[in-house]
Amino acid sequence: MSITVTGTVERKGFGKGTWALVAENGDQYEIHAGAPKELLQKGQKVTVKGEIRQDIMTIAMIGPVLEVQSFDANE
To answer: Phi and psi for 5 in degrees, rounded to 5?
Structure first.
C-alpha cells in the first residue's frame, strides 16, 4: 500500500534503536532499513512517499514498516 506521510523523524527504542516517522496525526511508522541517510536526522520534519511493508516483522514493533521511495524536507 503506497502512502504519503508528513511528520517528524525520531529515534526510538533501546540499545541500537530504530528510526521512526511520527506523523502529524500521531501515527508512527518504522522506517525500513536502507532509507536515505539524508532522511535519518532526528527532529527533521519531512514528507515521505513510500510503501507499507506488510511482509516484514521487526524486533522494535513500533508500528507499520515504511519503505521510503522518496522524501522532501520541510522547514
So the answer is: -130, 135
